[in-house]
Design goal:
Elements (H helix, E strand, L loop, with lengths): L1 H24 L6 H8 L2 H21 L4 H24 L5 H19 L1
Length: 115
């Protein structure tokens, strides 16, 4: 259970950081200076902080978890959080196949965490 919670936290921080960085860049950064300005913005700084925190959580997980369990759980959780962020903040629509796939991923997390 600890591995699922910590992996989910790591994934949530990573996805949140990427969402913040995407917001900061706004799809408009075409030069190195625009990227620097975007990264120095409040969303850019928050995104960097979240990504760094996700890295720290990942290193903590490595102190007690098997890589073969952590990576699949973290990857699956990142996918689920990415879909959630896309639906809530970008207005994307859920399809039946996506919902079924997400349910299978959740089932896979449970199976992998038991090994």
């Amino acid at each position: 259970m600890k591995l699922i919670l910590m992996s989910s936290l790591q994934a949530l921080l990573g996805v949140g950081g990427m969402a913040m960085l995407t917001n900061a860049l706004g799809g408009k950064a075409t030069s190195a200076m625009q990227i620097v300005y975007a990264l120095a913005s409040p969303f850019g700084i928050a995104g960097i902080a979240l990504m760094l925190t996700a890295g720290v959580v990942m290193f903590i997980i490595f102190t007690y978890a098997k890589l073969s369990a952590f990576v699949p759980i973290s990857t699956a959780a990142a996918f689920l959080f990415t879909v959630l962020v896309s639906v809530l903040y970008q207005g994307e629509k859920l399809s039946l196949s996506l919902v079924l796939g997400m349910a299978m991923i959740l089932g896979g997390i449970v199976v992998v965490s038991k090994s």
